[in-house]
């Protein structure tokens, strides 16, 4: 009980810690005009081999120390990066070229990423601050019920009745689709009922017995059996509440990956495009989490971010964590949220107030990509990195969900 109480205290503090100098408007979702992405032409590609190992291959970009404004990527470069591949359940693949309209080009300020496979991935920093969510009252309710597990070993988040957002490298290494992604499945956590089958069987037998007694006219026997049946039903009802969590697996109908990540052997994948969208073969009935544009650190309540995933060292337990953001750039959030492998692909979310309303709303503002060593003013530092949902990425993911840009004007 004390551990649960302590957990609830930390959980609450994660939401309400704010800077006293900030006003209510500073912690509010502000709708922004979204650039328009228009599908121009779709080409059929050869089927992938699905033989790659899951790993990140990164290109080098400018670091936090870049204080001066850098030339923004050209519109044609951005259009090439947000053009996208689609892989279907039968293994076929297409490439869709797009045009971008209404985009305001801004200078980029990023971190230099360097491969350092020989260095230890310190994904838990100091004291392990993760919380395993074991109580079914939390597991089966929003926002924790939006977290899903991929059959490739990653996590993801439900962002529509049929779509899961995850990290691109969970299904593609930058050159080819990884092993197991051809028959990719998504696991939705649910409670497994104990004794459910017995209860249904008992109910049927009881009805048959009652029917037989009625035909015989034996009223005393009928009353006795009804009482016995009620006691059994009550007992079995208690067993149902003692169910354990399990995964309900659903096949993936297709998956979308930005060309900025899937470069087909023509260069290393860029970490700022480490996101992918999976369409489920069967829609789910769970409450999902909407997308939001990633605000700056100053707009984060208490500077905190939150996410839940299925870390490998916790044996299928859902693991929640929150922490403050240490650094930010145009496309990334750099932080020290404790996260072991398996949580990659989790949706990072915030809880901000909706404009003109009294309620607060959680939205996905980034995708957790994983641990990276980075170069900051010539010094190697390590962070856990998340890819921000920018207006352009919001437009792309929205297009993938809806098939057109009609519902993607503001975000």
Automatic annotation (TrEMBL):
<dbReference type="GO" id="GO:0004252">
    <property type="term" value="F:serine-type endopeptidase activity"/>
</dbReference>
<keyword id="KW-0645">Protease</keyword>
<comment type="similarity">
    <text>Belongs to the peptidase S1 family.</text>
</comment>
<dbReference type="InterPro" id="IPR009003">
    <property type="entry name" value="Peptidase_S1_PA"/>
</dbReference>
<dbReference type="InterPro" id="IPR018114">
    <property type="entry name" value="TRYPSIN_HIS"/>
</dbReference>
<dbReference type="InterPro" id="IPR043504">
    <property type="entry name" value="Peptidase_S1_PA_chymotrypsin"/>
</dbReference>
<keyword id="KW-0732">Signal</keyword>
<dbReference type="GO" id="GO:0006508">
    <property type="term" value="P:proteolysis"/>
</dbReference>
<feature type="compositionally biased region" description="Basic residues">
    <location>
        <begin position="191"/>
        <end position="204"/>
    </location>
</feature>
<keyword id="KW-0721">Serine protease homolog</keyword>
<feature type="signal peptide">
    <location>
        <begin position="1"/>
        <end position="20"/>
    </location>
</feature>
<keyword id="KW-0378">Hydrolase</keyword>
<feature type="domain" description="Peptidase S1">
    <location>
        <begin position="140"/>
        <end position="200"/>
    </location>
</feature>
<dbReference type="Pfam" id="PF00089">
    <property type="entry name" value="Trypsin"/>
</dbReference>
<dbReference type="InterPro" id="IPR001254">
    <property type="entry name" value="Trypsin_dom"/>
</dbReference>
<keyword id="KW-1015">Disulfide bond</keyword>
<dbReference type="GO" id="GO:0005576">
    <property type="term" value="C:extracellular region"/>
</dbReference>
<keyword id="KW-0964">Secreted</keyword>
<feature type="compositionally biased region" description="Basic and acidic residues">
    <location>
        <begin position="205"/>
        <end position="223"/>
    </location>
</feature>
<protein>
    <recommendedName>
        <fullName>Inactive serine protease 35</fullName>
    </recommendedName>
</protein>
<feature type="region of interest" description="Disordered">
    <location>
        <begin position="191"/>
        <end position="244"/>
    </location>
</feature>
<keyword id="KW-0325">Glycoprotein</keyword>
<dbReference type="InterPro" id="IPR050966">
    <property type="entry name" value="Glutamyl_endopeptidase"/>
</dbReference>
